[in-house]
Design goal:
- There is one protein chain.
- The longest helix is centred in the middle third of the chain and has 24 residues.
- The chain is built from three helices and six strands, in the order E-H-E-E-H-E-H-E-E.
- Strand 2 and strand 3 form a beta hairpin.
- The chain folds into two domains: 65 residues, Alpha-Beta Plaits (2-Layer Sandwich); 35 residues, no CATH class.
- 33% of the residues lie in helices and 22% in strands.
- The chain starts with a strand and ends with a strand.
- The chain is of the alpha+beta class.
Length: 140
């Protein structure tokens, strides 16, 4: 008895295993066919040599393909994706900056510091702020 192992693309459930297995068993000379979702392959037992093109035709008729699926990439190389990411990052930075200056920070009520705004420690800003021409440290 001969054994052929083929990688299968497109199977995603137990029903796919059964459909493809039944289709492969209809090929003349095939005694048994086991399709595995886990290994995404078909193990075919047959009594006489059968060309791979015969298996390919049966697999394609069932709606699948021979081969391995390309794994999804973690990083995209599409410019549109990076443009959207940078836009979102800049928008988030703008929102956080506005929140730190408006809602989370308070004014110092002492008469000598009425002109200066304190910066919230949740969103520290490094550098200099110029308020009324005076330079102050932005990180307190």
């Amino acid at each position: 008895m001969l054994k052929t192992i083929l990688p299968i693309k497109g199977i995603h459930c137990r029903s796919c295993e059964m459909i493809l297995g039944d289709k492969l068993k209809t090929i003349q000379g095939v005694k048994n066919a086991r399709v595995s979702l886990k290994s995404k392959s078909a193990i075919i037992y047959h009594t006489k040599p059968i060309a791979e093109s015969v298996f390919r035709l049966a697999i394609e008729e069932a709606g699948y393909a021979i081969g391995t699926e390309n794994p999804k990439k973690w990083v995209s190389f599409e410019p549109r994706v990076w443009k959207d990411f940078l836009f979102a990052l800049m928008s988030l930075g703008q929102i956080c900056g506005e929140i730190s200056k408006s809602y989370l920070c308070s004014e110092i009520s002492s008469p000598s510091f009425l002109q200066f705004r304190t910066h919230c420690l949740l969103f520290p800003v490094w550098g200099d702020d110029r308020i009324n021409g005076k330079s102050i440290s932005a990180f307190w």
